[in-house]
User: Fold this.
Amino acid sequence: MFGRDEKVSPMRLTAAQYIILAIFLVLTYGLWRLQVSRSDLYATLAEKNRVRDVPILAPRGKILDREGRVIVDNYSSFSALLMRDSTRNLNDDADIIADGLHMDAKDIKDRIRRFATMPQYQPIFLKDDITQDDLAFIEAHRNELPELDTIMAHRRLYPRKGFMAHVIGYVGEVSEEMLNSPRWELYNSGDVVGKSGIELEYNQMLMGKNGSRQVVVNSHGREMGLLGEKDAEAGKDLKLTIDIDLQIAAEEALGDKNGAIVAMDPRSGEILAMVSRPTFDPNDFAVKISRDQWSKLVNDDEHPLMNKAIQAQLAPGSTFKIIMATAGMQEGIAQTLHVNCPGGASFYGRYFKCWIAVQHHGHGAVDVTKAIYQSCDVFFYTLADRLGISRMAKYATEFGLGQKTGIDLPQEASGLMPSEEWKIRYYRQKWYAGENMSVGIGQGAVVATPMQMTRAISAITSGGLMVRPHLTFPNDLPHNLVPASTEPGRVSIPIDPKNWEVITDAMAEVPGPLGTANSAHLQGIDFAGKTGSAQTISNTLKAKLANGKQDYKDNAWFVGVTPRRNPELVVGVLFEGGEHGQFAARLAAQVVKAYVDKQRRQPVKVVQKPQKNVEMGAVWSTTSPDGHSDNFQAAHFTVDIPKRRLPLAVAAPGLTH
Amino acid sequence: MSRYVSFRDFDWWLLLFVLIICGLGVLEIRSATAHTKFAGAHIKQMYWIGAGMIMMFAISYLSYQALLDKIHWLYIASLASLMMVLVFGQKYLGARRWIKMPGGAHFQPSEWVKLILIIAVAKYFTDLSQRELTWPDFIKAGAIVGIPMLMVLVQPDLGTALTYLPIAIMGLFLGGLRLRQALIVILLGVMMLPLAWHHLKPYQRERLTSFSDPESDSQGSGYQVNQSLIAVGSGGLWGSAAGSQTHLAFLPIPQTDFIFAAFSEEHGFVGALALLLLYFIVLMRLTQNAQTAPDRAGVFIVMGVVAVLSFHIMVNVGMVVGFMPVTGIPLPLMSYGGSSVLFMFLALGIVMNVRMRRFVN
Assistant:
């Protein structure tokens, strides 16, 4: 066993020492490189690592009515979060948490399990829009349940029951598609932006700028300290031309009926009220709308999301006769036109019925005045025949048909006014004279929105002044805010004052004892207008589909003004399936009455104190003393959860502050 | 023959430096885990060190000659324990590395196998008397280390398997490896690399790729590397008093494999260099012990310990400064963990054993 004492080569031992030395020198170099020569870089990286910008969400601007009453407000909403980086066993606490937050423990455990594979710094959202009660529970258990936390967001508080929903619109998270379009490219994903209505049109102004807090965080994203803060810049409040009192009147007038009402000041184009039915509740969008709810809204046959005042393109029916009368008189035809109406007349080999034919008699001798207040079709067939399509199209286009009114709301429809050129371009056919008749009574290819008809009749009764309808006061808007529409504000169309007087006087007869809207008479108010009952499908088609379904009932139209000449108010009503124009006229009359009453400083309603606690919402409903009808009430108040300020007082409709 | 051993010959200086390093480790564990769920780990670490010292004294009293004589049995036992891990082992994080012991403790056989391998290799080369290594000797020595290494690899525990390699290399080097042999083996090894890559687990590959480009996946597997670099780098020359990367928990599980990063952040380049110096002193003191060893076996044993220790330091510190991929190899004496501490003190015990018998014969 001599080998046992054989010495190991001392040279190799020394070599091993040198190898170890070399390793240590390399490691020292590595340390030097990181800690001395490039330490600035790493210090910066470390700073970035632990300092994080946490956005402070800017509240959106409020939306006010013309008198400064709040229509759309914000409220601070808290969401309950479960932080997963805590040392506690979340599943063990789930029962206590479920109890405190009124949730299902199984649901919480499910969420914990689903989040198991997600990065730890992502908290679990337990509950959105938590109640005072929930908040108190979380605050009281800060020590026992450190994993529970809250996050605050400003949420939109819209009027209840879909009040004014179509004008206001709603907000939502900016979608991927939107971010790809130029208008939204500067927004960040996650931003809450307007998606329709005023919220969309004036998003830039309403939105405000998010601030940020520079916080020191640990690797789980939990805040460990605060370095600096940049306050959020709240969005600017937006004053609308809407008058809540009138809006309430219009909302109540339309009630559950389908259709639209729009009230405008013909002198300026300020929209005072705009209603569309059926409606939707934008509050459903303010938190998070479920897929079911959304598809229900989108697929509803009655299109609750559609603002019918500017988007429903329908045959205007006899309301179109005011444009016809104006055209006829301006062209010097209608003044001298006298027809005998036996309940119909033949043109180009086809018999056209007058609406009166159903009552088995005719209008008899008809001049332009009677033709307007009795809405005699035969007169206007004849007039249409004399005028021809070119002149009808010229006047109708001048009064804004077939083009957008330029209202400051998104997705306005342009309607259609047929003409020879139009027919050649789209049908490659020439215009037949026999088509003039249906156009002359606002049927055929003519389609218009309630807003367009309101504007046209507003212009005619105002002596030719065409205004651009709008919902905001231009002087209130910031200079950089370019309205989406560049429609010229005011155009004057010359109308002979004599013709103007004849037409407006005839319109004043419409709600009179002999007029088509005699049931809409308003005592002591100079109320004028024109009814319309427009077929939704042709008579022959109706006969074919005659299953007795009310779907094909005529649409009732009415556009009314007060006073008859140079009016202060024009009200357009579309009452779908209303059958006869006078039913629409009654709705218009309610709005006109509310307006005149307010002008005469008579409150629309007796001021009521709400019996119960104030329901959240800038406009809400209370049950009236008789117990069944809902009254809308307007209020201005704030909700501030942490400070527990009580809701402020109430300004009732008709009461100016 | 070993009646004359005395603790007068115990290497007290070596123990002093080892304990200084352990003490720094305990302080760093305390600081790094202060506000985490691992708080209190430093107390446990102190218990482990205490237990390790008892075992060190105990093993130093045994004769290493006796160990060498019974090494066959110990080697077979170690293979059996590795086999048991593969069959009965506790699966944790996808790897089967632990055997659950009665009383709730977890035992990781791959650590103590390291110690057996050091002695087994020493025994093999002691019996080998000639100055130059032949190919059959080379292959036999390789097999002694290679078999347990493969068994650990399939657990899978690449890191620990790699720590067996320096034992073989050191043995071969001191045993008279020729330059030509070394070159051939290195060449073969390089040729085998693509095959080895093919057999790596996806997470192991990720660690290797993220090492070469930590930015590429800064939230995934590159995260640890990145955070470690940031922690070390932000320490600067004198250290960052706040130690924010570690204390704000950006550095994941700082008390184990990344303890050196936490230490470097808190104490800066100066502190880290001092720590490296302490390790260097320990290693030099160990090699000195090897030079004064009474026999060939003693040299191989002590140098085996030196090889394992240097390799750990090289890979761990190399990983922290970004020179090496993340392999899960702890920093000896500092990183938190019972198996690692016990191994180090057992290894030191054997070194003491050799030293205490240097005047025998």
About this structure: Chain B has one domain: 7-356.
